[in-house]
């Protein structure tokens, strides 16, 4: 236990082995999903800017569903309110795990990533509002530059071949998890449409039933899938963005197995194992296909840097995110007396802050909600793409400069010469191997 306490007093120090193993599994899936996401965004951009662009618009706006129960949506809205619910369900499970067993379970340990994430949401919004105030633009898009897209960021790292040590990747993941919670709160509070109290009451009742099923250890997908779909439909008809239902159910799912009922894995773990590949490989890329198809003509790109709303988004992502996360992290370290990992420098934290300026999936979603005028919405989408690409390019330069050091730390963390299934550095520090744990449990 003493080793773990020393590690946690070191900011960006090596995380405990169980947390590192969970983070590594998560990031592998997100990295693969991020590469698919990049390809999906490229397909959308090319398709929308070819002579076949009209077919893209027709397919995107194709309506289908069940009008009798209020579910007659366009294909774009099915991906935004339907498939993205899976993304937020996984995010909710991830957040629950962090709160119960991960970095956010201790208030002292959670201070750094939470303060950094809050800074990374508040400062971009302030930058946007400042730009639109000076330029006389609309304040409706203040929340667009607030979110970090972890999949896109990890895809950039994969393309670069950057070998970030596990602590840096875990910090980036935690930032994105807190960002997701902030984004869903913003969507729920600031972007409701035509509130229907009866439908929302039904959704709330469904969540209570969901909670009771979990509390009484009721298993079986045949309970949860129909109930989850009902909660989702009632949330949508209640006038609140349907993705809120996803994160609510994710937060309710248990993330600790109950040995008394013979569980090898918790319901949250099983759901995440099944749904994360669907989220990363299907839901988010399909959303990107129907959200990222914007015009890249000279007038459209010119509007990004001349109109206050898109300019506010670009500067919010590139400057606001960097300043907010870096300053928040430095202040949290300063006042909690946390010590930076001696193998790293504050320039590494700065590079992470720049990388967190990649805000793609949730930023596009909020942009669609904030701007009902199609022209403004297209300009803001172009701004999200531009800002994310600028942040990615700047982060690439900063991270490549130190990639030799990152590779050395990464190789030291992964070295397993005795093939015990746990890196040697953890065994030297007294961490349990799976073999030791099984022997002790007998």
CATH homologous superfamily grouping:
Na+/H+ antiporter like domain
Cα(first) to Cα(last) distance is 22 Å
What does the average pLDDT come to?
Answer: 85
Beta content comes to: under 5%
**Residue windows where pLDDT falls under 50 for at least 5 positions:** 1-8, 429-442
Give helix and strand order, one letter per element, not per position: HEHHEEHHHHHHHHHHEHHHHHH
Number of domains in the coordinates?
Answer: 1
Number of helices: 19
Binned, the helix content reads over 70%
Shape descriptor reads globular
Strand order of the largest sheet: 1-4
CATH architecture: Up-down Bundle
Structural category is mainly alpha
Q: What is the CATH class name?
A: Mainly Alpha
Q: How many beta-strand elements?
A: 4
Our Rg estimate from Cα atoms comes to 22 Å
Q: What profile does the largest beta sheet have?
A: 2 strands, parallel
The CATH topology is what?
Na+/H+ antiporter like fold
Short structural description:
The protein is mainly alpha-helical and 442 residues long. The chain contains 19 helices and 4 strands.
Structure, described:
A two-stranded parallel ribbon has the order 1-4. The protein has 442 residues and is an all-alpha fold. The protein has one domain: Na+/H+ antiporter like domain (Na+/H+ antiporter like fold). The longest helix has 32 residues. It has 19 helices and 4 strands. A hairpin with a 4-residue loop joins β2 and β3. The N terminus and C terminus are likely disordered.
Write the layout of secondary structure elements.
Blueprint: H1 2-8, E1 10-11, H2 17-48, H3 53-60, E2 63-66, E3 71-74, H4 75-100, H5 107-135, H6 150-160, H7 166-190, H8 197-215, H9 221-237, H10 243-252, H11 267-291, H12 298-306, H13 308-336, E4 339-340, H14 346-355, H15 361-370, H16 374-401, H17 403-414, H18 424-428, H19 434-441
Parallel strand pairs: 1-4
Antiparallel strand pairs: 2-3
Helix pairs in contact: 2-6, 2-7, 2-11, 4-7, 4-10, 4-11, 5-7, 5-13, 8-9, 8-10, 9-10, 11-15, 12-13, 12-16, 13-14, 13-16, 14-16, 15-16
């Amino acid at each position: 236990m003493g080793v773990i306490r020393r590690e946690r007093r070191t900011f960006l120090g090596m995380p405990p082995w169980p947390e590192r193993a969970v983070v590594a599994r998560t990031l592998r899936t997100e990295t693969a999903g991020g590469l698919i996401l990049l390809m999906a965004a490229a397909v959308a951009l090319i398709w929308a800017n070819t002579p076949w662009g009209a077919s893209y618009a027709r397919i995107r706006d194709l309506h289908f569903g069940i009008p009798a129960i209020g579910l007659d949506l366009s294909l774009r809205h099915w991906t935004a309110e339907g498939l993205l619910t899976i993304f937020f369900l996984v995010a909710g499970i991830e957040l629950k795990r962090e709160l119960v067993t991960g970095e956010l379970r201790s208030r002292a340990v959670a201070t750094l990533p939470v303060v950094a994430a809050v800074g990374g949401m508040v400062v971009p919004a302030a930058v946007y509002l400042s730009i639109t105030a000076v330029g006389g633009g609309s304040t409706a898009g203040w929340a667009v530059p607030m979110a970090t897209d972890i999949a896109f960021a990890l895809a950039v790292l994969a393309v670069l071949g950057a070998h970030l040590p596990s602590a840096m990747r875990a910090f980036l993941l935690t930032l994105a998890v807190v960002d997701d919670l902030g984004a869903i709160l913003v969507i729920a509070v600031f972007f409701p449409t035509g509130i229907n109290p009866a439908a929302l009451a039904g959704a709330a009742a469904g969540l209570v039933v969901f909670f009771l099923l979990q509390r009484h250890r009721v298993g079986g997908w045949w309970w949860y899938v129909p109930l989850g779909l009902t909660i989702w439909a009632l949330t949508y008809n209640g006038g609140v963005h349907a993705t809120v239902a996803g994160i609510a159910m994710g937060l309710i799912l248990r993330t600790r197995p109950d040995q008394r009922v013979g569980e090898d894995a918790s319901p949250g773990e099983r759901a995440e194992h099944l749904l994360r590949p669907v989220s990363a490989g299907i839901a988010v890329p399909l959303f990107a296909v129907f959200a990222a198809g914007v015009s890249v003509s000279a007038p459209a790109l010119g509007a990004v840097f001349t109109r206050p709303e898109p300019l506010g988004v670009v500067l919010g992502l590139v400057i606001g995110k960097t300043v907010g996360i870096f300053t928040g992290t430095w202040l949290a370290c300063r006042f909690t007396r946390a010590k930076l990992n001696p193998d790293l420098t504050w320039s590494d934290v700065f590079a992470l802050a720049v990388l967190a300026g990649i805000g793609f999936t949730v930023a596009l979603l909020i942009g669609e909600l904030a701007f009902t005028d199609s022209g403004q919405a297209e300009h803001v989408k172009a701004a999200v793409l531009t800002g994310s690409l600028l942040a990615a390019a700047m982060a690439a330069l900063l991270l490549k400069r130190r990639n030799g050091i990152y590779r050395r730390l990464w190789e030291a963390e992964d070295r397993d010469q005795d093939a015990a299934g746990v890196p040697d550095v953890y065994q030297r520090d007294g961490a349990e191997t799976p073999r030791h744990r099984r022997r002790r449990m007998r």
